[in-house]
Amino acid sequence: MTVARARADWAALGTTATVLVTDPGSLEAIERKVRVDLDAVDLACSRFRADSELSRLNERPGRPVPVSPLLFEAITVALRAAELTGGVVDPTVGLALRRSGHDRVFGVPGGAVAPPVRVERATWRDVAMDADRGRVTIPAGVELDLGATAKALAADRAATVAATAAEGVGVLVSLGGDLRIAGPSAGDWHVRICDDHRAGAEVPGQTVGVRSGGVATSSTTVRRWGRGAHHIIDPASGRPAVAPWRTVSVAASTCVDANIASTAAIVLGDAAAAWLRARGMPARMVAGDGEVLRLCEWPATGAQST
User: Fold this and answer.
1) How many domains, in total, are found in the chain?
2) Is 151 contained in some domain?
3) I need a labelling partner for 45 at 20 to 30 A (CA). Which of 29, 78, 134, 148 fits?
């Protein structure tokens, strides 16, 4: 990612947080605001923290649990993702993720990996949301995982909050390569798209120019363990998705919508291109052999606006 004016990077939400601003004088204040917002998302939504709200909710299936407005929003967003994708992106795959081996933060040594197993279970439709009382009820046998949407929601929230607080300043917030732009247009923000956001310019990828909205990338190449295991679960099987695409990047009006689509595309496999075209979503899809398919006016080469 190319710096526009000023930049800050730090570790957050199990990945790298990056903030870019068009006014160097505003960077310190904006960074503080973004850090506070990301810390709040982590405490509310992390599946890897015993003290998180989500962990406490997952420990109380079958009964209504009061949650904060932030966690309520995050679960609402995750259920919307399930509805938009017909259950292809389903937040109730937490147990399947844990059983497949994704039971702790990457980079932290863990125990043995259990073989994936298919279980008959409830789905996203069985999660009860009581907006009047701020309560959530998950059915027995279900653990929520918000990994497909919470990080993108955090990027959307942080960018919007920062741009609102610093009037007249353009802001880009990236969380592990999933990004949102807010504030006045600063022309193109040059963004590097590849399998792993930590990779250098020497690896295969593409630099595109983004002026507004969000971009998200889902990949089966980075968070891997065991034999063929990765973090994107196919709800139909309860196992890591088997797909021809190793990486899918999507542009949308928000990071959440981009991430919903990129995750769905990995799970949908051969049907993903038609699904994205039907929704008019610009996308860059990389097959296992490295062949690239670009859809819906995703730029072919160079730093062009998307």
Assistant:
1) 1
2) no
3) 29
Q: Is the pLDDT of residue 159 over 50?
A: yes
Torsion sign (Cα): 238, 244, 248, 253:
negative
Q: Is 289 exposed, middle or buried (0-12, 13-18, 19+ CB in 10 A)?
A: exposed
Looking at the whole model, is its pTM more than 0.70? yes
CB atoms within 10 A of CB 60: 12
Task: Give residue 260's pLDDT band: very low, low, confident or very high (50, 70, 90).
Answer: very high
Domain around 206: 6-23+170-295
Size of the chain, expressed as the number of residues it contains: 306
Beta bridge partners of 9: 18
> Closest Cα to residue 285, out of 249, 251, 235, 242?
249
The domain that holds 188 is classified in CATH as: 3.10.520.10
Predicted pLDDT at 234: 80
Q: Residue 269: how many CB atoms within 10 A of its CB?
A: 14
pLDDT band at 231, cuts 50/70/90?
low
